[in-house]
């Protein structure tokens, strides 16, 4: 089990407002940004965490900039070892004790929507309702993704993780898997109704993920921005916990990389590159020059 379910809701790639009034050529496809501080520079790319296997998204410039970088920066450094960490947390914190169930935290309407979708995706009611909302959301999203041909193993992060391992390139993380889990369990776990409503709202729209990935593949920033705005319009607290607060922490870490020797290739969930307190704007506010490549 992974915390990637919520990132799926918001995965995308965006260009923030600093581009307004600027004329420059833009390459089609997934976008890159360069962040510079004098002679020091690094590259930032937004990640889609789930893709259909065989999706062709790599363009030559992306591979070139990755190869030129001294280190790879991901949200989580050890993606391969994440399951060993998350499994004990899921078993310890993901289920209700005997006699309790989802029915105690969700409205009847939301509960029935969740149970119905779980049934359509092959999850039995008895086991599903024993899961706390954050785990139920993970399970729904993983099952939904599989039923629509999406695979976290084909995601952008995992691609670069494997490529870095093959090249012997060091990988560092912006946070740990334990920190990600805490954000979900502690940061949003006390509002199961909102958490489940947001999950269902995205999964019940069968075209959402295809629209998002299609726009990401084309580099269509306007479409992606609208999709992300709609995803969080009714859930500002979720945006603050899952996106904005983390962006503020990450911007400092990414900026610090510009003071170290060697360049970095930074890959983050693409929703972190758009909207209020996005990483790119925060870096520019710190005085760094940010430009789309």
- Numbering strands along the chain, what is their spatial order in the largest sheet? 4-3-5-2-1-6
Sheet-strand content, in percent, reads 5-15%
Largest sheet: 6 strands, mixed
Using only C-alpha atoms, the radius of gyration works out to: 19 Å
Query: Poorly predicted ranges (pLDDT <50, ≥5 residues)?
Result: 1-27
Mean pLDDT: 84
Helical residue percent?
40-55%
What's the helix-strand series?
Answer: HEEHEHHHHHEHHHHHEHE
Shape, per Cα inertia axes: globular
Q: Distance N terminus to C terminus? A: 35 Å
- Class by SSE composition: alpha/beta
Number of domains: 1
Q: Give the count of helical stretches.
A: 13
Number of strands: 6
Short description:
The chain is of the alpha/beta class. The chain has helices at residues 4-10, 60-68, 82-93, 108-120, 125-128, 133-147, 156-167, 177-187, 192-203, 208-218, 221-232, 236-257, 279-285, and strands spanning 32-37, 40-47, 71-74, 171-173, 264-269, 289-292. Residues 1-27 have low confidence and may be disordered.
């Amino acid at each position: 089990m992974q915390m990637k379910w919520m990132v799926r809701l918001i995965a995308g790639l965006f260009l923030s407002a600093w581009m307004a009034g600027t004329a420059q050529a833009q390459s089609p496809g997934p976008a890159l940004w360069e962040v510079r501080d004098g002679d020091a520079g690094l590259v930032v790319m937004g990640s889609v965490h789930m893709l259909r296997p065989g999706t062709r998204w790599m363009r030559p410039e992306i591979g070139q900039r990755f190869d030129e970088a001294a280190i790879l920066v991901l949200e989580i450094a050890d993606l391969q070892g994440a399951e060993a960490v998350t499994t004990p947390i899921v078993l310890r914190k993901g289920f209700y004790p005997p006699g309790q169930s989802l029915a105690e935290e969700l409205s009847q309407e939301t509960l029935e929507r969740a149970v119905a979708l779980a049934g359509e995706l092959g999850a039995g009611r008895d086991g599903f309702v024993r899961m706390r909302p954050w785990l139920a959301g993970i399970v729904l999203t993983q099952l939904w993704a599989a039923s629509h041909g999406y695979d976290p193993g084909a995601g952008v992060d995992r691609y670069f993780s494997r490529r870095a391992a093959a090249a012997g390139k060091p990988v560092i993380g912006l946070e740990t898997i334990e920190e990600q889990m805490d954000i979900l369990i502690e940061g949003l776990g006390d509002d199961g109704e909102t958490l489940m409503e947001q999950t269902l709202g995205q999964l019940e729209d069968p075209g959402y993920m295809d629209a998002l990935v299609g726009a990401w593949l084309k580099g269509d920033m306007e479409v992606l921005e609208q999709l992300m705005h709609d995803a969080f319009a009714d859930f500002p607290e979720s945006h603050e916990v899952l996106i904005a607060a983390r962006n503020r922490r990450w911007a400092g870490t990414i900026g610090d990389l510009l003071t170290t020797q060697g360049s970095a290739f930074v890959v983050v969930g693409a929703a972190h590159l758009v909207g209020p307190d996005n990483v790119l704007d925060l870096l520019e506010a710190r005085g760094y020059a940010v430009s789309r490549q």
